[in-house]
Amino acid sequence: RQNTIGDELFVIQKGKMAVLHQYESGREEKVAELQMGDTFGEMALLMDSPRTASVQTLSSAQVISISRSPFEKVLAATSLRKEDVTGWIRLSQQLQHSPLFAEMSANEVAHFLKRSERRPVPAGEILIREGDVGSHFYIVLSGKLEVHKKGQQIGTLTPGDFVGEIALLTPVPRTATVTAVEHTQVLELSRIAFFETLSANVSFSSKIIEVAQERRKKTGMLL
């Protein structure tokens, strides 16, 4: 419940839940829906602050609850800071709601995150350069990227989009340039980790191939 002191975090094993936020005016609004694999309640433990929203079941549900004491013992036994844990949980949830990861389990998403690196791309920086040999796959977490081919803009990439797959799947150099138009964050995956993820997750590989074929058909964009 919003404004109460949190002493547990929860992981949903089954069912759906609504996240409700009540404003000072008294108006209550559903701001998100949670499903299997999602985590909630961690912020109150990590930030030592009252709950910022209420969570209500939308269907019969089952959760795993972790109380403050064992949670803090786990943190104390690692080199992780609370801010690191917060960022990792939020990123994991963000990916699970992306079509690319929709059919992955929470454990599979966690394994993907362990193999990838979060990379900032300042405004104006080139992420992919036309003519280069492709070595990495990228998923846009925040910000905005523009795609140019032979000096002409042919596309825009925003959070949830991915890029770099075709140059890994085919033996050709990059044939377009991708540049950040504002401060952007991407997840970077090496060639080896990319192919390991493809072989381990049918839904992931199917989505990658589907989008790659669409891009090649519409724009001839080999990134």
Describe the structure.
The chain is an alpha+beta fold. 32% of the residues lie in helices and 32% in strands. The protein has helices spanning 42-47, 68-76, 82-96, 106-115, 165-169, 191-200, 202-218; strands at residues 8-14, 17-22, 28-34, 39-40, 54-57, 62-67, 117-121, 126-128, 136-142, 145-149, 152-157, 162-163, 177-180, 184-190. It has a four-stranded antiparallel sheet with strand order 7-14-9-12. It has a four-stranded antiparallel sheet with strand order 8-13-10-11, with no helix packed on it. A three-stranded antiparallel sheet has the order 4-1-6. It starts with 7 loop residues before the first strand and ends in a 5-residue tail after the last helix. The model has no long low-confidence stretch (mean pLDDT 84).
